[in-house]
Design a protein that fits this description.
Length: about 500
């Protein structure tokens, strides 16, 4: 009996000692993780802090379920130039003008659409394409409320030789293409929206980085000349994606630059020919924001006198000070929306950036120093009671996080707007940023059953796309079904688009 008690006593001591070691190891690991996050945040001045202490009552959150997600539209026809940056948004950003807030969110949703509709399923025969044809894109994504019609898709490629382990599809032979990817679209305001906003607005929305080859390009930090003046230089990888083309590809026999400029010129000529006021608004997130600047530079050079604005989200630096100066001289108006904790807008040029201007008298103007362009609207993750405040690089950079913070921003000195209407659940579409009290699953946005459907025999299969959603340009082995042909004809008559 005594022997048994001794053994039990020994086991208890061993168990307690084991728990003590585990607790110590967990604390040590947690301490290391915390120190690493703090060190990185201090290096980049991200201002990270722990989760919000304020708890959210379910009743308070559920109240929002019974309210609309948007405010009623207002006529801005007599204010559109201010909203489009004619005065560089002076006195409109802090505090943020409510009409401008709604316009920023509208263009941000156009940017988000390039992610929501992108087929990045590596098992898909159409990996790298848009899931929907351009006539149905906004309807499928619930963006018809904005009153714009998509007129053209843009494809881009990277000419870099991508390592095998970076290739995007497991079925390269059957995929859309090894090099070309759907990169965005051109849209134009319909008659009703044009009347509300005071002009015919052409929108170009550029997608951010998704495909591995694009990441590979983003990693390069070489500056290349752009335009006739060799002083103006931009990041090599961004320019490569914008300008690359190849006769061996299906969708990039012409470059993204050539595709977008052909359609923009056509629309400008058509609507100016009807005597209408026309603007060009270019938007994009991350890499898309960089491509938006290159697009704006080219459009301003090709279409002098056109009102051109850029509204970007989480965009990196693109070029040097000479590029900055040329955009300013060409009259391009640029508004950069930046989350304070997001590191992407700090790159490239974390050290060698516009901050060195103070030393111009000593070192002169350095052509290899990166420089941000335009006005800045800075929002802070810590301002929202609905967001986790821990270290979350993906969450900080998400478009939906940006739009949530813009919707709640009134001024840099005031609290998050209690009357913010945007659906909170959208924040967690592709990340884990909402506080646990809201009970919204992380990264919930995906096709039902991950794209599988039951066939007539009850087997789960990858379904075929509808013929109208197959990404084949008309005239290249694809014939429209009669219903889609009729739809095209109705749109042709209604909007006088050249749908070829």
């Amino acid at each position: 009996m005594a022997t048994t008690e001794t053994v039990h006593h020994h086991l208890r001591r061993h168990h307690d000692h084991h728990n003590t070691i585990n607790t110590h190891l967990k604390q040590k690991t947690s301490s290391k993780s915390t120190r690493l996050a703090e060190s990185l945040s201090n290096l980049l001045h991200l201002h990270i802090q722990g989760p919000a202490q304020e708890s959210l009552s379910n009743a308070r959150f559920e109240e929002k379920h019974e309210t609309p997600t948007t405010s009623p539209k207002e006529d801005i026809s007599d204010k559109w130039r201010d909203m489009h940056g004619s005065s560089d948004w002076n006195n409109l950003l802090d505090p943020l003008h409510p009409l401008l807030r709604r316009e920023i969110i509208k263009y941000g949703e156009f940017s988000q659409a390039t992610y929501d509709a992108f087929d990045f399923d590596s098992f898909s025969n159409y990996c790298g394409s848009c899931r929907y044809n351009h006539q149905d894109l906004f309807e499928k994504l619930g963006l018809n409320k904005h009153g714009y019609i998509v007129s053209e898709y843009i494809y881009a490629m990277s000419s870099v030789k991508v390592p095998r382990w970076l290739e995007k599809s497991r079925l390269l032979e059957k995929a859309l293409g090894k090099d070309s990817n759907w990169m965005g679209y051109v849209a134009v305001s319909d008659d009703e929206e044009s009347k509300r906003i005071g002009r015919r607005d052409i929108v170009v929305a550029w997608r951010g980085t998704i495909a591995p080859s694009e990441w590979y390009e983003d990693l390069k930090r070489k500056l290349d000349p752009i335009g006739p003046h060799v002083e103006a230089k931009v990041e090599h990888g961004f320019l490569n994606i914008y300008m690359s083309k190849s006769e061996t590809t299906r969708y990039n026999k012409s470059s993204a630059s050539e595709q977008v400029m052909k359609e923009v010129k056509r629309l400008v000529q058509f609507y100016k020919g009807k005597g209408e006021e026309v603007s060009l608004t270019i938007t994009g997130h991350s890499l898309g924001g960089a491509l938006a600047l290159l697009n704006a530079y080219e459009a301003a050079s090709a279409l002098p006198g056109l009102s051109i604005g850029v509204i970007s989200f989480g965009a990196p630096r693109v070029g040097n000070v000479a590029f900055h100066d040329e955009l300013h001289q060409k009259g391009v108006k640029i508004l950069r929306v930046v989350v304070k904790q997001d590191i992407v807008p700090r790159m490239p040029g974390i050290i060698f950036n516009e901050g060195l201007q103070r030393f111009d008298d000593i070192i002169g103007s350095l052509e290899w120093v990166y420089h941000h362009v335009g006005a800045e609207l800075k929002v802070d993750v810590r301002s929202s009671p609905y967001l986790k405040h821990g270290f979350n690089l993906l969450g900080f950079h998400s478009v939906e996080t940006y739009l949530h913070l813009v919707d709640g921003f009134h001024s840099s000195s005031s609290a998050f707007r209690s009357e913010a209407r945007r659906d909170l659940a959208l924040v967690n579409k592709a990340c884990d940023m909402l506080v646990d009290e809201l009970r919204i699953p992380q990264s919930w946005y995906q096709p039902a059953n991950k794209g599988l459907e039951r066939n007539v025999h009850g087997r789960w299969v990858k379904p075929k796309r509808n013929p109208e959603d197959i990404p084949s340009p008309i005239g290249e082995g694809h014939t429209l079904v009669p219903e889609m042909q009729n739809k095209f004809e109705r749109l042709r008559a209604l909007y006088s688009f050249k749908l070829d």
